[in-house]
Each structure stands twice: as structure tokens, then as C-alpha cells.
């Protein structure tokens, strides 16, 4: 049972992650013109643990808005969540897309890897739905690269 004095010390979770995603991604659109928020929600809902859900809902916030990692820290998100978000944020000025994918694989951070797999699966689906073949190939190749590098078959897993 949670004591009333413990409430203030609880880590933010799914509710806070969804709230931040909604506030920050509101009005943003993907390449097909769909709300970016729908992608964030799909990736979050694909998470198998609460941490995967939290990171999934937030995975594009720093990359696509002026939100910072420090803001997540100030809100009380765990180091594990913030570290995963750092790995999942692609700085195009520092590395190519495949270097970014490789850095996630080589990190050994299972939280970031699992969320990236969920992200790629949804990106593959939405590229297929929108006829964005270039992006379908890019995301499919990234997923296959992760599978080969880690020796796992994420592609067929639900």
C-alpha cells in the first residue's frame, strides 16, 4: 500500500508520458500528413513493460520539438528512461541513420532496443500504408540490421 507521504516521490509513468507527448507533438505531421502523435501512441502501446510504454510515447519528443533531456530529468523520469531516450534521439548532424541504428544495437540497452524495434515496425507499417517505399525500405533494412547484429528475429515477433 502506498502511504500518502510516498505520493510525491513516485516516478512519472504512462500518464505523464502521454500528457507530454500530447502537449509537445500536437499539430506536428508525418510525411504522409498524419498526426505525429498517432505514431507516438502506437509505439507506446506496443511496449511490453511500463518503461517501454513510457519511452515509446516519448521517443520522438526531443528529436521533433524543443523539449530537452534535462526537462525529463526535472520532471523526475528515471535515469533508465532518460538514457533510453538519449539513445533513441537521432542527431542527424552527428551520424548517419545506419550509424544511429548501430549505436542503439551496440549500446546493449534493452529498453532502447525494444522501443526502437517497436518504432521500426510501426514505421514499416505506416510507410506501406502511405506508399512511401523509400521509407519502407529504410526502416525494413534497419530492422533486419538489428536482427542480424543481435541475433534475434524481431521481424516476425508480435
Mean pLDDT: 92
Rg calc: 16 Å
Instruction: Name the helix and strand elements from N-terminus to C-terminus, one letter apiece.
Output: HHHHHHHHH
Class by SSE composition: mainly alpha
Could you state the oligomeric state of the chains shown?
Answer: single chain
Architecture per CATH nomenclature, i.e. the level-2 architecture: Orthogonal Bundle
Domains counted in the coordinates: how many? Answer: 1
Task: Give the overall silhouette.
Answer: globular
Number of strands: 0
For the record, the CATH class is Mainly Alpha
The CATH superfamily is: Hypothetical protein af1432
Largest sheet: none
What are the salient characteristics of this protein?
158 residues, mainly alpha, Hypothetical protein af1432, globular
List the helices and strands and how they pair.
Elements: H1 14-25, H2 36-45, H3 50-58, H4 61-64, H5 69-74, H6 79-88, H7 97-107, H8 110-130, H9 133-150
Mind explaining what this structure looks like?
The chain has 158 residues and is an all-alpha fold. The chain has a single domain (11-150), classed as Orthogonal Bundle (Hypothetical protein af1432). It is 64% helix and 0% strand. The protein is built from nine helices and no strands. It has helices at residues 14-25, 36-45, 50-58, 61-64, 69-74, 79-88, 97-107, 110-130, 133-150. The longest helix is centred in the C-terminal third of the chain and has 21 residues, at 110-130. The chain is globular.
Please sum up the structure shown.
By secondary structure, the chain is an all-alpha fold. 64% of the residues lie in helices and 0% in strands.
Amino acid at each position: 500500500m502506498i502511504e500518502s507521504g510516498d505520493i510525491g516521490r513516485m516516478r512519472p509513468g504512462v500518464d505523464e508520458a502521454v500528457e507530454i507527448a500530447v502537449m509537445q507533438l500536437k499539430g506536428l505531421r508525418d510525411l504522409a500528413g498524419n498526426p505525429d502523435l498517432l505514431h507516438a501512441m502506437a509505439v507506446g502501446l506496443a511496449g511490453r513493460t511500463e518503461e517501454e510504454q513510457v519511452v515509446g510515447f516519448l521517443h520522438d519528443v526531443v528529436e521533433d520539438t524543443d523539449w530537452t533531456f534535462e526537462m525529463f530529468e526535472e520532471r523526475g523520469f528515471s535515469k533508465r528512461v532518460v538514457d533510453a531516450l538519449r539513445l533513441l534521439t537521432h542527431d542527424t548532424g552527428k551520424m548517419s541513420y545506419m550509424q544511429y541504428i548501430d549505436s542503439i544495437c551496440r549500446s546493449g540497452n534493452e529498453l532502447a532496443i525494444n522501443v526502437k524495434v517497436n518504432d521500426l515496425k510501426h514505421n514499416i507499417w505506416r510507410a506501406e500504408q502511405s506508399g512511401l517505399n523509400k521509407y519502407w525500405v529504410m526502416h525494413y533494412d534497419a530492422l533486419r540490421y538489428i536482427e542480424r547484429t543481435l541475433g534475434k528475429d524481431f521481424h516476425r515477433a508480435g
